[in-house]
Design a protein that fits this description.
The chain has 8 helices and 2 strands; from the N terminus they run ααββαααααα. By secondary structure, it is mostly helical.
Length: 189
């Protein structure tokens, strides 16, 4: 990402290429389940339990594909992104730490990082899939995790004559702007 967004320094690209080759060879189990930690020799220290390892690998390989033009890195990023989407409903799989018989826990770390990841890799992934993923993430954060806004928030939005952010009225451009943190208001007047 430094090479793509800060400066085209050859030593940064070379470092990224070396890291990518190491991860390509040792960083996953062969099915793009990414290990959380490796030894210097490439032996796994921690099983691939954490979906965030997958998101970081996706971002790294996508950015390297953009920097280098290497379609092999793009393919790894796409395959890993697909794995993230497959695992989204049960991110930790067999390593889930939820205690049996208790209420389900809903956090919004995954929708937030997945939304950011989608924006970082959108050059490599089908536009419709990116838009759908961002829409789903925003829905989870804004409608599922925060179904009722505090009274002060609703009062401020009424004062501004701004309608509540509603999924059907958004287009892809405003969704991306909202996901990036830009102020987007759908005015009534």
């Amino acid at each position: 990402m430094l090479y793509n967004k800060v400066a085209k320094r050859p030593e940064w690209l070379e470092c990224a290429l070396q890291g990518a080759e190491f991860l390509k060879k040792y960083g996953h189990d062969g099915n793009y389940n990414w290990y959380f930690s490796l030894t210097r020799e490439g032996r796994p220290l921690v099983d691939p339990y954490n979906i965030f390892s997958y998101t970081f690998a996706t971002m790294a390989f996508a950015q390297l594909a953009i920097a280098s033009g290497d379609t092999g890195y793009a393919a790894i990023a796409k395959k890993t992104f697909d794995r993230v989407l497959e695992k989204r409903s049960n991110p930790k799989g067999k390593w889930c730490k939820a205690h049996p018989g208790t209420r389900p826990i809903k956090d919004f770390a995954l929708p937030m990082i997945l939304c950011n990841l989608s924006l970082e890799i959108e050059q490599l992934i089908d536009k419709q899939l990116i838009d759908q993923t961002i829409e789903t993430c925003l829905h989870e954060v804004m409608e599922v995790f925060l179904p009722e806004r505090p009274r002060a928030y609703r009062r401020e939005m009424s004062r501004r004559k701004t309608i509540r952010w509603s999924t059907p009225s958004r287009d892809a451009r405003s969704t991306r702007a909202f996901a990036r943190g830009d102020v987007v208001h759908h005015g009534l007047g």
